[in-house]
Amino acid sequence: MSVLDDLQYINKLDKSNVYGSVVALADQIKDAWTSVNKLELPKECALAKNVVLAGMGGSALGGRVVKSLAGDRLRAPFEVVNDYHLPAYVGKDSLVILSSYSGTTEEVLSCGNQALSKQAGIFVIATGAKLQAFAQENSLPGYIIDPRFNPSNQPRMAVGYAIVAVLALLARCEFIYLRQDEMKNVESTVRGFIQEFIIEVGEKDNLAKKIAARLRNKMAILVASEHLVGAAHVFKNQLNENSKTFSALFELPELNHNLMEGLRNPAEAKRFWHFLFFESDSYFESVSKRYKITEDVVNRNEVGFSVYKLRSPDKLEQIFELITLGSFINFYLAMLYGIDPAPIKWVDYFKQELSV
Fold first, then answer.
1. What span, in angstroms and rounded, lies between the C-alpha atoms of 117 and 105?
2. What is the pLDDT of residue 171?
3. What is the pLDDT of residues 61-87, one digit of tens each?
4. pLDDT under 50 in the chain at which residues?
5. 251 and 331: one domain?
6. How many other CB atoms are found less than 10 A from the CB of residue 57?
7. What pLDDT is recorded for position 10?
8. For residue 284, what is the domain's CATH number?
9. What is the reported pLDDT for 104?
10. How many domains does the chain have?
11. Is 6 domain-assigned?
12. Residues whose CB falls within 8 Å of the CB of residue 199, separated by 6 or more in sequence, listed in order
């Protein structure tokens, strides 16, 4: 029996119940949408001319996903800041979203102080701590997450909260048109894919387990386009933090202008590379055409690859389909490596050294 079908083995490794967070994604989506739609928001939020989300790591994933939708949905510029400093253009006409799951991220707190000094509109997303106190002291609106559907308490596993909180806020402030039934469809789609990928479905019939097996002892090179780039970034982030493995993400068509020539050397490394292409019928036709040709180039360079074609009918559902698939693959890959996916010892070490 495959270790991925061995519930006893998995439960022994998964000490913090990361799997519980994986299978709760649909519940996170529903909870965040309902909660943010109950909040009282200042009417002025709809008057902002640009939106900036400040966040790091898992807390920035919601912003990255929303930014991937920008071309289709958003009526104003949207930027994600992974730094201590807000852009110079931020001012009274800006809405700044401060996202920190722990509520203690120093880069986000720094951006919060700058947003105050620039008299920007501010909205907070956190589970509590310093960021919640900052919001209370300055009478700022915010979504204080009750992480009941994130039993592992890992920020990277709170993606349902992080993404949908931002979507709901932007819909409430009229930056994006998003219907209630669309989110219900997303929730239903996620629940359906969860049932395909859960532990109880054996490796023989479980695509997430099969892909995880292909990625074992490989460097995963993810390729996505347009609306799926943010979701692929979630996948990459979780490969690093959950599977404790190297990964890279490239956008197509940009990679056609450089990366293909970089597949020649070092020749000894090729056996460790594995490309994972995310195809979609929703891509612009000229972009879709590039996938098969790019896959052929990768094959001609004797590099392994896999293809996953999104099955959901619209872009928003495809985004969450990919996030669901990625979360399961990353969890199963950690199991194949025989490691607990929760601890992030090097991130913790770095934070400890930085605080000295």
1. 19
2. 92
3. 888 998 898 767 788 899 999 999 999
4. none
5. yes
6. 19
7. 96
8. 3.40.50.10490
9. 83
10. 2
11. no
12. 4, 5, 7, 10, 19
- Residue 84 has a pLDDT of 95
- The pair of structure tokens assigned to 50 is 């640009």
Of 163, 178, 193, the residue at which a domain comes to its end is 178
For residue 28, being part of any structural domain is answered with yes
Question: Which token pair is 329?
Answer: 């693959």
Sign of CA dihedral 313, 316, 319, 322: negative
Q: Are 7 and 13 in contact (CB under 8 A)?
A: no
Range of the domain at 245: 202-336
| Paired strand residues for 52 | 79, 96
Q: Are residues 165 and 43 in the same domain?
A: yes
CB proximity list for 287: less than 8 A, separation 6 or greater: 225, 226, 252, 253
Q: Is residue 112 a part of any domain in this protein?
A: yes
Question: Which SS3 state, helix, strand or coil, does residue 100 take?
Answer: strand
**Looking at residue 252, what is its pLDDT?**
97
pLDDT reported for residue 160: 95
Q: Do 320 and 207 have their domain in common?
A: yes
What's the per-residue H, E or C state across 146-185?
A: CHHHCCCCCHHHCHHHHHHHHHHHHHHCCCCCCCHHHHHH
> 159 and 67, same structural domain?
yes
